[in-house]
Amino acid sequence: MTTKPKIAIILGTTRPTRFADKPAEWLMNIAKARDDATYEIVDLRDYPMPFFEEAGSPMFVPPQNAVALAWGRKVAEFDGYIFVTAEYNHSMPAVLKNALDYAYAEFGRKPATFVAYGGVGGARAVEQLRLVVAELHMTSLKHTVHIGATEFVGMLMQGKSFADYPYLDDAASMMLDHLAWWTNTLRAGRELAAVEPFDHQAALKAAGA
Protein backbone atom coordinates (compact mmCIF):
# COMPACT_ATOMS: atom_id res chain seq x y z
CA MET A 1 0.00 0.00 0.00
CA THR A 2 1.64 3.21 -1.16
CA THR A 3 -1.25 5.62 -0.70
CA LYS A 4 -3.33 6.61 2.27
CA PRO A 5 -6.72 4.92 2.52
CA LYS A 6 -9.75 6.98 1.52
CA ILE A 7 -12.70 7.36 3.85
CA ALA A 8 -16.09 8.78 2.89
CA ILE A 9 -18.22 10.85 5.25
CA ILE A 10 -21.67 10.18 3.80
CA LEU A 11 -24.52 12.57 4.56
CA GLY A 12 -27.48 10.24 4.97
CA THR A 13 -30.35 12.71 4.70
CA THR A 14 -31.37 15.16 1.98
CA ARG A 15 -34.08 17.22 3.70
CA PRO A 16 -33.82 20.99 3.03
CA THR A 17 -33.63 21.74 6.77
CA ARG A 18 -31.34 18.86 7.68
CA PHE A 19 -28.96 19.08 10.64
CA ALA A 20 -26.47 16.67 9.06
CA ASP A 21 -24.26 19.39 7.59
CA LYS A 22 -23.17 20.53 11.06
CA PRO A 23 -21.79 17.18 12.28
CA ALA A 24 -20.31 16.43 8.86
CA GLU A 25 -18.37 19.71 8.83
CA TRP A 26 -17.33 19.25 12.46
CA LEU A 27 -16.11 15.72 11.80
CA MET A 28 -14.29 16.76 8.64
CA ASN A 29 -12.37 19.42 10.57
CA ILE A 30 -11.26 16.81 13.10
CA ALA A 31 -10.37 14.33 10.36
CA LYS A 32 -8.32 16.83 8.37
CA ALA A 33 -5.96 17.23 11.34
CA ARG A 34 -5.06 13.55 11.09
CA ASP A 35 -2.52 11.96 8.74
CA ASP A 36 -3.76 8.35 8.68
CA ALA A 37 -6.26 8.70 5.81
CA THR A 38 -7.81 11.11 3.35
CA TYR A 39 -11.42 12.06 3.95
CA GLU A 40 -14.16 13.29 1.64
CA ILE A 41 -17.75 14.34 2.23
CA VAL A 42 -20.19 12.53 -0.04
CA ASP A 43 -23.65 14.10 -0.14
CA LEU A 44 -26.69 12.07 -1.16
CA ARG A 45 -28.16 15.27 -2.55
CA ASP A 46 -25.67 14.86 -5.39
CA TYR A 47 -27.07 11.40 -6.18
CA PRO A 48 -30.88 11.79 -6.51
CA MET A 49 -31.74 8.16 -7.13
CA PRO A 50 -35.35 7.09 -7.62
CA PHE A 51 -37.00 4.64 -5.28
CA PHE A 52 -35.34 1.28 -5.91
CA GLU A 53 -37.20 -0.53 -8.68
CA GLU A 54 -34.45 -2.35 -10.53
CA ALA A 55 -35.06 -5.71 -12.20
CA GLY A 56 -32.74 -7.45 -9.76
CA SER A 57 -30.50 -6.95 -6.76
CA PRO A 58 -27.14 -5.25 -7.42
CA MET A 59 -25.70 -8.35 -5.79
CA PHE A 60 -26.24 -9.98 -9.16
CA VAL A 61 -27.25 -7.32 -11.72
CA PRO A 62 -25.78 -3.80 -12.12
CA PRO A 63 -28.38 -1.03 -11.77
CA GLN A 64 -29.72 0.48 -14.96
CA ASN A 65 -30.25 3.94 -13.50
CA ALA A 66 -27.43 6.31 -14.52
CA VAL A 67 -27.35 8.15 -11.18
CA ALA A 68 -27.20 4.86 -9.31
CA LEU A 69 -24.28 3.75 -11.45
CA ALA A 70 -22.49 7.03 -10.64
CA TRP A 71 -23.22 6.46 -6.96
CA GLY A 72 -21.73 2.98 -7.16
CA ARG A 73 -18.59 4.27 -8.86
CA LYS A 74 -18.22 6.93 -6.18
CA VAL A 75 -18.54 4.67 -3.15
CA ALA A 76 -16.17 2.16 -4.78
CA GLU A 77 -13.41 4.78 -4.51
CA PHE A 78 -13.31 4.49 -0.72
CA ASP A 79 -11.79 2.07 1.75
CA GLY A 80 -14.07 2.95 4.66
CA TYR A 81 -17.25 4.86 5.46
CA ILE A 82 -18.73 7.11 8.11
CA PHE A 83 -22.49 7.46 7.79
CA VAL A 84 -23.93 10.66 9.24
CA THR A 85 -27.53 9.79 9.97
CA ALA A 86 -30.65 11.17 11.52
CA GLU A 87 -33.18 8.92 13.21
CA TYR A 88 -36.63 8.86 11.64
CA ASN A 89 -39.29 6.76 13.39
CA HIS A 90 -36.69 4.63 15.18
CA SER A 91 -34.84 3.95 11.92
CA MET A 92 -32.56 5.42 9.28
CA PRO A 93 -33.71 7.95 6.67
CA ALA A 94 -35.37 6.27 3.71
CA VAL A 95 -33.03 8.00 1.27
CA LEU A 96 -30.04 6.38 2.98
CA LYS A 97 -31.58 2.90 2.90
CA ASN A 98 -32.41 3.44 -0.76
CA ALA A 99 -28.82 4.44 -1.55
CA LEU A 100 -27.49 1.37 0.24
CA ASP A 101 -29.88 -0.82 -1.74
CA TYR A 102 -28.41 0.49 -5.01
CA ALA A 103 -24.89 -0.91 -4.45
CA TYR A 104 -23.34 -4.11 -3.20
CA ALA A 105 -19.89 -5.19 -4.32
CA GLU A 106 -18.59 -1.64 -3.96
CA PHE A 107 -19.01 -1.86 -0.16
CA GLY A 108 -17.69 -5.38 0.36
CA ARG A 109 -15.02 -6.12 2.97
CA LYS A 110 -14.79 -2.52 4.11
CA PRO A 111 -15.47 -0.93 7.53
CA ALA A 112 -18.32 1.38 8.43
CA THR A 113 -19.08 3.51 11.45
CA PHE A 114 -21.66 6.12 12.31
CA VAL A 115 -22.32 9.64 13.55
CA ALA A 116 -25.97 9.78 14.56
CA TYR A 117 -28.30 12.29 16.15
CA GLY A 118 -31.76 12.26 17.64
CA GLY A 119 -33.68 11.60 20.84
CA VAL A 120 -31.36 8.84 22.03
CA GLY A 121 -28.43 9.91 19.91
CA GLY A 122 -29.77 8.15 16.86
CA ALA A 123 -28.94 4.81 18.47
CA ARG A 124 -31.93 3.00 16.98
CA ALA A 125 -31.06 4.19 13.48
CA VAL A 126 -27.51 2.95 13.98
CA GLU A 127 -28.68 -0.47 15.18
CA GLN A 128 -30.79 -0.89 12.06
CA LEU A 129 -27.94 0.33 9.88
CA ARG A 130 -25.69 -2.32 11.38
CA LEU A 131 -28.07 -4.99 10.07
CA VAL A 132 -27.99 -3.48 6.60
CA VAL A 133 -24.23 -3.02 6.33
CA ALA A 134 -23.70 -6.59 7.54
CA GLU A 135 -25.77 -7.82 4.60
CA LEU A 136 -23.58 -5.67 2.34
CA HIS A 137 -20.56 -7.61 3.63
CA MET A 138 -19.22 -4.63 5.58
CA THR A 139 -17.73 -4.56 9.07
CA SER A 140 -19.54 -2.20 11.43
CA LEU A 141 -17.47 -0.78 14.27
CA LYS A 142 -18.33 -0.57 17.94
CA HIS A 143 -17.11 2.99 18.37
CA THR A 144 -19.54 5.60 17.06
CA VAL A 145 -20.63 9.15 17.89
CA HIS A 146 -24.12 9.74 19.27
CA ILE A 147 -25.42 13.31 19.45
CA GLY A 148 -28.25 13.22 21.96
CA ALA A 149 -31.25 15.47 22.46
CA THR A 150 -29.41 17.93 24.72
CA GLU A 151 -26.66 18.58 22.20
CA PHE A 152 -28.96 18.38 19.20
CA VAL A 153 -31.44 20.93 20.55
CA GLY A 154 -28.63 23.10 21.87
CA MET A 155 -27.06 23.42 18.44
CA LEU A 156 -30.29 23.52 16.48
CA MET A 157 -32.26 25.98 18.59
CA GLN A 158 -30.05 27.57 21.27
CA GLY A 159 -27.11 28.89 19.28
CA LYS A 160 -24.60 26.43 20.69
CA SER A 161 -21.89 24.62 18.72
CA PHE A 162 -19.78 21.50 19.00
CA ALA A 163 -17.29 23.56 21.01
CA ASP A 164 -19.84 23.54 23.85
CA TYR A 165 -19.70 19.74 23.96
CA PRO A 166 -16.00 18.82 23.95
CA TYR A 167 -16.73 15.20 24.92
CA LEU A 168 -18.07 14.70 21.40
CA ASP A 169 -14.58 15.52 20.09
CA ASP A 170 -13.21 12.76 22.32
CA ALA A 171 -15.77 10.30 20.99
CA ALA A 172 -14.94 11.27 17.40
CA SER A 173 -11.20 10.81 17.97
CA MET A 174 -11.76 7.37 19.45
CA MET A 175 -14.01 6.44 16.53
CA LEU A 176 -11.48 7.64 13.94
CA ASP A 177 -8.64 5.79 15.66
CA HIS A 178 -10.50 2.50 15.39
CA LEU A 179 -11.74 3.24 11.89
CA ALA A 180 -8.17 3.87 10.72
CA TRP A 181 -7.05 0.48 12.10
CA TRP A 182 -9.92 -1.40 10.49
CA THR A 183 -9.57 0.47 7.22
CA ASN A 184 -5.90 -0.38 6.88
CA THR A 185 -6.36 -3.95 8.05
CA LEU A 186 -9.22 -4.73 5.69
CA ARG A 187 -7.55 -2.98 2.77
CA ALA A 188 -4.44 -5.10 3.32
CA GLY A 189 -6.63 -8.20 3.44
CA ARG A 190 -8.38 -7.31 0.19
CA GLU A 191 -5.07 -6.68 -1.53
CA LEU A 192 -3.60 -9.91 -0.21
CA ALA A 193 -6.58 -11.87 -1.51
CA ALA A 194 -6.57 -9.91 -4.77
CA VAL A 195 -10.31 -9.42 -4.36
CA GLU A 196 -11.36 -5.78 -4.56
CA PRO A 197 -14.21 -5.22 -4.41
CA PHE A 198 -15.79 -8.36 -3.00
CA ASP A 199 -17.05 -10.65 -5.76
CA HIS A 200 -20.19 -12.22 -4.30
CA GLN A 201 -20.95 -14.41 -7.32
CA ALA A 202 -17.43 -15.86 -7.30
CA ALA A 203 -17.76 -16.60 -3.58
CA LEU A 204 -21.04 -18.42 -4.13
CA LYS A 205 -19.51 -20.48 -6.93
CA ALA A 206 -16.48 -21.36 -4.79
CA ALA A 207 -18.80 -22.48 -2.01
CA GLY A 208 -20.70 -24.70 -4.39
CA ALA A 209 -23.90 -22.71 -4.01
Question: Would you write up a description of this structure?
Answer:
This protein has helices spanning 21-32, 66-76, 94-101, 123-135, 149-157, 166-193, 200-206, and strands spanning 6-11, 38-43, 80-86, 111-117, 139-140, 145-147. With 209 residues, the protein is an alpha/beta fold. The protein has a single domain (6-206), classed as Flavodoxin domain (Rossmann fold). It is globular and about 55 Å long.
Low-pLDDT windows of residues: none
CATH homology superfamily: Flavodoxin domain
Helix coverage percent of residues?
40-55%
Distance between the amino and carboxyl termini: 33 Å
Strand content: 5-15%
Tally of structural domains = 1
Number of helices: 7
Mean pLDDT: 93
What is the CATH class?
Answer: Alpha Beta
Number of strands: 6
> What class would the helix/strand composition place it in?
alpha/beta
CATH architecture annotation name:
3-Layer(aba) Sandwich
The coarse silhouette is globular
Rg estimate, integer Å: 17 Å
List SSEs in N-to-C order.
Answer: EHEHEHEHEEHHH
Q: Give me the CATH fold name.
A: Rossmann fold
Largest sheet: 6 strands, parallel
